[in-house]
Amino acid sequence: MNGVLSAFLLTFAGLFPIVNPIEAAPFFLALTPGMPTQERTILARKVAINGFALLLGSMVLGPWLLAFFGIELPVVRIAGGLVVTALGWKLLSQESWSDHGSMQAGQERKVGSFYPLTMPLTVGPGSMSVAITIGSRKPATDLFWKQWGDLALHAAGALAGVIAIAITIYIAYRFAEGLARALGATGLEVLVRLSAFILMCIGIEIVWNGYSALIAPH
């Protein structure tokens, strides 16, 4: 049970600061002006489902694709951890930065549930790289039966974490108007900065795990 909870917390805490649907909610509102509440609710549900599929696909297939090209998983973890740390530092130190930076509210584009609302507004390259890095984690044991058991627990926790992210996406977009009024600019700023510090800590931990795997005797 501890393995499931640990994987869940790692996945949710690693993805939430970058996906950050609360911060993206005002952009969602700006891209759906005049849309009836019922249609906006349906669109929010579609974006949540698309985001879940993108993150889960990155987590499951990403590490195997990299391995197919001959890149060792510990190296992937180190590179991904550095990316995560850098993203956290940018979010913490810059005045205005997020994984949603490439999408401006004033852009006049045809709004679709996948593009631009799911990608790049909600799930961008930063969150996908975090998902790949989390998916590359392996149980630290040489026992075959225990390795598969730990892997199953990690997979269950990671899946629950991605589901939780999808739920937060739906809730943030479904109630975007109320969230924007309740948090205000200061509340959003505090949430982003605190999440960024947690993200940096997670990135450093991922780098350390990858380095430890590289130097461990085979």
Arithmetic mean pLDDT: 79
Global morphology: globular
Order of helices and strands: HHHHHHHH
Main β sheet profile: none
* Helicity level: over 70%
C-alpha Rg (nearest Å):
18 Å
Unreliable parts: 105-109
Beta content comes to under 5%
Helical run tally: 8
Report the strand count. Answer: 0
How does the helix and strand content classify structurally? mainly alpha
Gap from first CA to last CA:
29 Å
Core attributes:
218 residues, 8 helices, 78% helix, 0% strand, mainly alpha
Textual characterization of the structure:
It is built from eight helices and no strands. It has 218 residues and is an all-alpha fold. The longest helix is centred in the last third of the chain and has 40 residues, at 176-215. The model is unreliable at 105-109 (pLDDT under 50).
Topology:
Elements: H1 2-19, H2 21-31, H3 37-68, H4 73-93, H5 117-122, H6 125-135, H7 144-174, H8 176-215
Short description:
By secondary structure, the chain is mostly helical. The protein has helices at residues 2-19, 21-31, 37-68, 73-93, 117-122, 125-135, 144-174, 176-215. Helix 2 (21-31) packs across helix 7, helix 3 crosses helix 6 (125-135) and helix 4 packs across helix 8.
